[in-house]
Amino acid sequence: MNAASIVVKASGLTKRYGKSVAVDNISFEIPAGRIIGLIGPNGSGKTTTLKAMLGLVPFEGELRVLGLDPRTQRDELMENVSFIADVAVLPRWLRVREAVDFVAGVHPKFDRAKAERYLKNTKLTPKMKVKEMSKGMIVQLHLALVMAIDAKLLVLDEPTLGLDILYRKQFYQNLLEDYFDEQKTIIVTTHQVEEIEHILSDLMFIRDGRITLSATMDEIGERFTEVMVPADKVEAARAMKPIDERQVFGKSVMLFDGTVNGVTREKIEALGETRSPGIADLFVATMKGTYA
Amino acid sequence: MNTKKFGWLLRREFWEHKGGFFWTPMVVSVIMAIITAGSVAIGVTKGSEANIRINGQVVTKLADQFSGEEKAAAVAQFANGYMASAVPLLFVLSFTIFFYCLNALYDERKDRSVLFWKSLPVTDGATVLSKIAMALGLAPLMALLFGTILALLIVVFISLGAAAMGVNIFGGVLSSAALYLAPLQIAAMLPIYALWALPTVGWLLMVGAWARSKPLLWAVGTPLLAVGLIAWFNKMLAFGWDIDWLWKYIVGRGLLSVTPGSWLAYSPEDLEMVGRMKQVALGPLLAQTWQQVTTPNLWIGAVVGAAMIYAAIRLRRWKDEG
C-alpha cells in the first residue's frame, strides 16, 4: 500500500482534558476507499478522535489527514473533507435555497445540480426554513449538501441519532448508492451498529481512549465465530474459554476469538452450528464492564 | 482572501439578520414618514397659528409673515439640516450593531451551527471579518440609505405643507447644493465611525466567542464591576486615582463606541462647538470627525479592538464546543 492512499495516519495521538485522558496514545492508519465504523461506548473518545481529525480541537502526537496536519492546515484540509458532526446543527433561520446557494458559493467542489436532484426526491422546498423541518428533513438537507461535495473523506458522527428507521435506512442507502466510491473514504460512528454493519468495510472498536480492535470485516469474520452449543457440549465449550456466552431459546450461544486460547476452526465446528457474529454482539462481548 | 467567498459570507450575514439591518430601519422610516406627513397635514389644516416645527426649527409660517430673507434662511437651514431626520435611525442602528456583535459568535455556538459552518472551507478569520464588515460597513450604509430616503420624503412633505400655505420653498430647497451633499458628508464619516467603534465591536465579539452562557452579563458586567470595584478601593483607601478616566476609556470606549458621534464626548471643545452651532452644518462636523485621525484615542482604541478581534478569531478556531 503506498503512502498516497493512506487517508488518515495517527501515531501516538493523545488528547487530555485537564487530568482526564480522552484519547490515550492511539495509532492507526485508514486507507482510501473504505467505510470505517468507529464504535465505542459513550465517553470512549471516539468523538474526540474525530474532532482531532477535523482540526476542531488541539491534541498531542502525530496526525495526518490527507497528508495535512489538521492543527495548522485546517483551511486547506476542509476543501477535501466533509463532516456531519451531529444531527440538527443547521441553523434554524436558514432556508433550503440559501443553504444550497451558500455552499455553492464557498465550496469549490460542490455540485449544485447533484444537490438539487437529491432534494427533488424529498419534501423539502426551496423556501423552507430549517425551523419548519422535522429532524429527519434537516438530515436530508444536510445530506443533500454533503453528498454534492466531492470530498475525499467524509466523517459522520452519529448522523442518524434520533431519526426513525425509515430515515435511517434511507440515509445509509443514499450514501452507499449515490456517494461512495473507491476514491472516497467514510468514517462513521453510531450506536445503531447493526444497521450499518452490512455497509462497513472496516471496524475499529475504541474503549477508554484506546483502540481495542481494528480489522477489516473479512478479518473479523475469520477471527470471531459464534456457536450454538447443545447442552451436552456446554462444559467442553466453556473449557475453550469463549469471550461471551448468552442463552437463546434454552441453548447457549458462545462467541470465540480464533486468535486466543488455542481455539481453532475445527474445534469450534465440532461444538455445533457456527455463524459469523453480529457487530453488536461482538461489541457487547468486548466492552463488558465498561460502565462497571 | 477570496472576494467571491467573502461576498457569500456577507450575504449569509444579511440573510440571518435581515430583521435587524433591513426591516427595522425600514419600519422606523415608514413610521417617521407617516408621523411627519400627519403633523404637516394637521399644521396646514389648522391654518393661521400653524408653525411647523421640525427638529426644533420653525419651518413654515404664514406666507404674509415671511420676508424674503427669512425664507432664504429657512431654506438654507432646511437643506443643511434635513438629514437630522435620519438621526433616530442611526441610534437604532447602534443598538442593533451592539447586539449583533455580542451574539454573532455566541448564537452559532449555542445552537451548534458553528459545526456546520466549520465543515465548509471558510477560515475563521474570513468569517469573523465578514461579521465586522456587516456591522461597520454594510449595516451603516443601509441605514444611511434608508435615512436619506426618509429625510428626502420629509423634505417633500414639509415643502408640500409650506406650498399649501402659500410659501413655495421647493425651488430653493431642491436647488441647494447642501441637500445633495449631506448624505455624502455623512457617508464620509463612516470610516472614522468604523475605526472608532472597533474596541466595542472587538470586545463584544470576543466575549461572544468565549462566554458559555449569558454573554450580555459578561460583556456589560465585567467592565462595570471591575471599574466599580477599583473606584470603591480608590475611595476606601484614598489612592487618588483618576477614576473618571477609567469610566471614560474602559467602560465608555469598550461598550459605547458603537454610538455614532460618540467621539465628540471625548473632546470638550468639539462638543462645545457643536452646541454653539445655530444650524446644523455638516461640513464642519465632517472636518471635526476626521480630526479624530490625529488623536491617539482613536488609534489606541482601534489597535486594542483589533487585538480583541484577533482573540475572537482564535477562540472560534480552537474553542471546544463539546
SSE topology:
The complex is a heterodimer of chains A (292) and B (322).
Chain A: E1 6-17, E2 20-31, E3 35-39, H1 46-53, E4 60-65, H2 74-77, E5 81-84, H3 96-106, H4 112-120, H5 135-147, E6 153-157, H6 165-179, E7 185-189, H7 193-196, E8 202-207, E9 210-216, H8 217-223, E10 224-229, H9 234-239, E11 244-248, E12 251-257, H10 265-269, E13 273-275, H11 279-286
Parallel strand pairs in A: 3-7, 3-8, 5-6, 6-7
Antiparallel strand pairs in A: 1-2, 1-4, 8-9, 10-12, 10-13, 11-12
Chain B: H1 3-16, H2 18-46, E1 52-54, E2 57-60, H3 68-81, H4 87-104, H5 107-110, H6 114-117, H7 124-164, H8 170-174, H9 177-187, H10 190-210, H11 215-237, H12 243-255, H13 268-276, H14 282-291, H15 296-318
Antiparallel strand pairs in B: 1-2
Task: Tag the structure with descriptive keywords.
heterodimer; A: 292 residues; alpha/beta; 6-stranded mixed sheet; 4-stranded antiparallel sheet; 11 helices; globular; B: 322 residues; mainly alpha; two-stranded antiparallel ribbon; 2 strands; 2% strand
Protein described:
The complex is a heterodimer of chains A (292) and B (322). In chain A, helix 4 runs antiparallel to helix 5. In chain A, 41% of the residues are buried. Chain A is built from eleven helices and 13 strands. In chain A, the strands form three sheets. In chain A, strands 5-6-7-3-8-9 form a six-stranded mixed beta sheet, with helices on both faces. Chain A has a four-stranded antiparallel beta sheet with strand order 11-12-10-13. With 292 residues, chain A is an alpha/beta fold. Chain B is mainly alpha-helical and 322 residues long. Chain B contains 15 helices and two strands. Chain B has helices spanning 3-16, 18-46, 68-81, 87-104, 107-110, 114-117, 124-164, 170-174, 177-187, 190-210, 215-237, 243-255, 268-276, 282-291, 296-318; strands at residues 52-54, 57-60. Chain B has a two-stranded antiparallel sheet with strand order 1-2. In chain B, strand 1 and strand 2 (57-60) form a beta hairpin. The interface between A and B is medium-sized, with 32 and 24 residues.
